[in-house]
Amino acid sequence: MSIDTHNVAIVGLGRVGSIFLQKISDDSDACLRIKCVVEIGDTPGKKLALEKGIPVVSLDGVVEMGTDVDVIFNFTGDPNVTKSLNQKLEESCNRHTKVSQDRVARLIWSLIEPEDSLPEVNATKYQAYADMVLERQKKGK
């Protein structure tokens, strides 16, 4: 039995999106292929995507890829981005591509990285600090 490869796009390469990008792009056995990313700022995640040859596009660019993208992960933390993507997909008559909810990304993460958890997208600065402390503990710092 073969495992299908699913083409994904990642929107938002801040703290959480960058971690997700790193894990997915480093997993050679993954059934997820990153087709493109969307990031307007200069983030470490955007730099990583460029280094790996992953196209950096706009929201419209993702939609223009049509059915070449199966799932779009929105890590911006902005529900308006999801709403805009869904509207653009509907206007383009693309009924194939789905915008994933944050909890689906967490499910995927738990399957590929059972020893770790994906940080919260809408974390407070205190949660971000706690995530940082836990990460340092894991690395023995």
| DSSP strand tally | 4
Return Rg in Å. Answer: 15 Å
The name CATH uses for the topology is Rossmann fold
Span between termini: 43 Å
Structural class: alpha/beta
Overall shape: it is globular
CATH class: Alpha Beta
CATH homologous superfamily grouping? NAD(P)-binding Rossmann-like Domain
Number of distinct helices = 6
Which series of helices and strands comes N to C?
A: EHEHHEHEHH
Weakly predicted, low-confidence segments: none
Strand content: 5-15%
Question: Share of helix among residues?
Answer: 40-55%
Total of domains: 1
Description of the structure:
There is one protein chain. With 141 residues, the protein is α/β, with parallel strands linked by helices. It has one domain: 3-Layer(aba) Sandwich (Rossmann fold). The protein is 45% helix and 14% strand. It contains six helices and four strands; from the N terminus they run E-H-E-H-H-E-H-E-H-H. The chain has helices at 15-26, 44-51, 59-64, 79-91, 102-112, 125-138; strands at 6-11, 32-38, 71-74, 98-100. It has a four-stranded parallel β-sheet, with helices on both faces. Helix 1 (15-26) runs parallel beside helix 2.
